[in-house]
Design goal:
Elements: H1 17-21, E1 38-41, E2 52-55, E3 58-61, H2 90-98, H3 105-130, H4 132-135, H5 139-172, H6 176-195, E4 200-210, H7 218-230, E5 235-238, E6 241-243, E7 249-251, E8 256-258, E9 261-263, E10 267-272, H8 275-282, H9 288-294, E11 298-309
Antiparallel strand pairs: 1-2, 2-3, 4-10, 4-11, 5-6, 5-10, 7-8, 8-9
Helix pairs in contact: 5-6
Length: 325
């Protein structure tokens, strides 16, 4: 064996990774051995714990990957979000979120304010609807309505002055008993005209309704009576029937029944009152005349300086009512 040749030395045993992890010392390195360049192994070791480097005849293992830290005993895991039940429909989920209600004080305050606001809006809308009829009227119609109100006010004022004058006469008359009898007689005549027990005469109008198609009904004639009374009519007669406070209308077989008397067309009204008030009251927009003309009835109105209402009614003694004086 020549000096230049180096005898083969047996490779020292490599320490197991388990021994290194357990804290055992590695095998001593031979100082006489020549240091060879390091050789990196990219694969894992046989136990699969990590990478290693080979220096000469030795293999040094890298420490394995650190295991994930365990959760401490005192730290609770976060609760998982609830998984929606697939069997619940949208309506059920909505009801589940609304009931039972969770009401707070601010929510109650807001609800109360909304209720007050809604009530105010409802009152405003109702008042607006009630006045919408006059808002849609023409200027001529508004002037006519205003004149009728002024006339009614003037009639009431005249009646008040008349009653005040009668009281003054009773207080200042030397023969109060005779004055009382005179006023009582005059009052009897007035009440007789209203009750239909005496004839009456004066200025007024005549209203004639020709209903050839038979479309005029009892309620239309009643509306005409109401308009005439509101305009100041003092005595009304339809054909041969006197109209009083307790007069009623009904649809009959061949015409219209007034207080049980059948009246056929043409219907002729004889009305005592101020003609300047009675005629415009019948001709107001949407009033009696327009309603009758829609039913294709012929309507004619004439003014008279003097007409007579002579249809009479028998005075009926009341069964239960008695004078309190």
């Amino acid at each position: 064996m020549s000096n230049d040749e180096t005898p083969d030395r047996p490779e020292p045993p490599r320490p197991e990774p388990a021994d290194q992890e357990a804290g055992q010392p590695a095998a001593p390195r031979d100082e006489g051995a020549a240091e060879q360049p390091s050789e990196r192994t990219d694969g894992r070791s046989g136990d699969g714990k990590g990478h290693g480097y080979r220096f000469g005849g030795l293999r040094r293992e890298l420490p394995a990957e650190r295991p994930a830290p365990r959760a401490s005993a005192h730290r609770q895991p976060l609760p998982e979000p609830p998984v929606p039940d697939g069997s619940m429909t949208g309506r059920k989920r909505l009801l589940a979120s609304l009931w039972p209600p969770r009401v707070t004080r601010p929510q109650l305050t807001v609800a109360l304010l909304l209720c007050v606001l809604g009530l105010g809006l409802a009152i405003q809308v109702r008042s607006t609807n009630e006045s919408s009829v006059l808002r849609g009227a023409r200027q001529e119609d508004l002037v006519r309505i205003l004149d009728e109100l002024d006339d009614r006010t003037q009639r009431l004022e005249d009646e008040k002055q008349r009653l005040v004058g009668q009281r003054t006469e009773l207080e200042n008359s030397s023969d109060q008993a005779e004055e009382a009898r005179r006023q009582t007689k005059a009052k009897e005549q007035q009440l007789g005209v209203l009750a239909g027990t005496v004839a009456a005469q004066g200025p007024g109008i005549t209203l004639r309704i020709d209903d050839t198609r038979g479309a005029v009904e009892a309620d239309m004639l009643l509306d005409a009576i109401q308009e005439l009374r509101a305009a100041g009519a003092e005595a009304i007669q339809i054909n041969e029937v006197r109209v009083v406070a307790n007069t009623y209308f009904a649809d009959g077989g061949k015409g219209i029944e007034i207080d049980g008397h059948e009246v056929s067309q043409p219907y002729e009204f004889t009305v005592i009152g101020k003609p300047e008030d009675l005629e415009p009251a019948l001709n107001i927009p949407g009033g009696v005349v327009q309603t009758l003309e829609k039913e294709r009835a012929n309507v004619s109105i004439k003014r008279h300086e003097k007409i007579v209402v002579d249809a009479l009614r028998s005075a009926k003694r009341p069964d239960y009512a008695r004078s309190s004086s």
